[in-house]
Specification:
This protein is an alpha/beta fold and 338 residues long. It has helices spanning 12-18, 33-47, 67-75, 96-107, 127-135, 149-159, 168-176, 180-193, 202-208, 214-225, 229-241, 246-267, 274-281, 285-298, 300-319, 324-336; strands spanning 25-29, 57-61, 84-89, 113-119, 137-140.
């Protein structure tokens, strides 16, 4: 596979650094697991030589490994290779004192070692991170906002060396949403579907990519808002038939209701345009227009009540032994009567 080179790729700073020589210090923090995992694999490829990979790769965990063990591994010379990789997972489990014990090494890292930290968060107020930013690469990888998704898709298409028809990236983002793994998988499937040398068209996306996403959620909320139980239950059944886990569908609904809540709140303070809502919520303008329409019909108190029903359903799905489909049906009936 070609290395991503587009600035729209969230991993562009990392790939730019790896293009010459992997930095001796890398800290990846954030909650976007797809990007974190892809970054780790890119670093492994850049640092480790296949023949001696097992001899020169150590993986430690922040909760179990103290500063002394990390330093011992980081200072170990590579065996029959130029460099070695030491990966510290759950690095946010390291205490402030343990991080302080690593600062001397951070100021003068071993050039033969790539010391890679992976964590969900980083307390950037600590001296450790101030030094890290001076001597290494610190990259934050959180879930992308809706408006960033087309750029990610275009970067993926460039990586796969395939062209996209104008508007195709936005359509795919609308269909699939913010699950980067699903977006990448859909692009690879489309590459197999589209003849070599031809661009991926919007009609290809409509034919290949199964829709369980946004327009279905909008339709479902429209049916709920109209208290049309029959239509709402029918739409739910169609979404469940796509074999999407109930918790994932609930997460889509919850995310949608939260955006509706934000939109309805904006309406209580004035008459925002679709462009203003798009900017405030980080969504595409056409999505903002639909959100405005629904928020005007449903009103803020109704949206808040719907969010409460979804919150309780989330707990039920995780704790109850009832069938997931039955719980989701009860959710829809509850939303129709709020």
């Amino acid at each position: 596979m070609a290395t991503p080179t587009s600035p729209q790729d969230p991993l562009f700073p990392l790939h730019s650094a790896l293009a010459t020589k992997a930095p001796a210090l890398i800290y990846l923090c954030g909650k976007e697991r797809f990007l974190i995992d892809r970054a780790i694999e890119a670093i492994k490829t850049a640092v480790l030589e296949p023949a001696t990979r097992d001899f020169n790769y150590d993986q430690l965990f922040g909760k179990e490994a103290g500063a002394a063990q990390i330093l011992a591994c980081a200072k170990t010379l590579p065996m029959m290779a130029k460099r070695r990789l030491v990966l510290i997972r759950d690095a946010d489990e390291l205490t402030a004192d343990e991080l302080a014990s690593l600062t001397k090494f951070i100021e003068s890292p071993a050039p033969e070692t790539c010391l890679l930290f992976v964590a969900e968060k980083a307390d950037l107020r600590l001296r450790f991170f101030n030094l890290f930013k001076k001597h290494g690469l610190l990259l934050k990888l959180d879930p992308l906002a809706d408006k960033q998704l087309p750029g990610f898709i275009e970067a993926e298409a460039k990586r796969l060396q395939v062209e996209l028809e104008r508007g195709a990236a936005a359509r795919m983002a609308d269909e699939i949403g913010a699950d980067l793994g699903q977006l990448a998988d859909a692009l690879e499937r489309l590459c197999c579907f589209v003849p070599v040398g031809q661009p991926i068209r919007i009609r290809d996306i409509e034919e290949v990519v199964v829709t369980t996403r946004q327009h279905s959620v909008f339709e479902l909320i429209d049916a709920v808002g109209a208290a049309d139980r029959s239509a709402a239950l029918s739409l739910l059944s169609e979404m469940l038939m796509q074999r999407e886990p109930a918790l994932k569908l609930l997460a889509l609904l919850s995310r949608h209701i939260m955006k509706l809540w934000q939109t309805a709140d904006l309406l209580t303070h004035g008459r925002p345009s679709a462009g203003e809502v798009a900017s405030a919520l980080g969504v595409m303008p056409f999505v903002a227009g639909k959100l405005l329409d629904q928020a005007r019909r449903l009103k803020l108190p109704r949206v808040q009540a719907m969010h409460e029903v979804i919150f309780h359903t989330d707990r039920t799905l995780k704790q109850s032994k009832l069938d997931d489909e039955r719980i989701m049906e009860q959710l829809i009936l509850g939303l129709c009567t709020t």
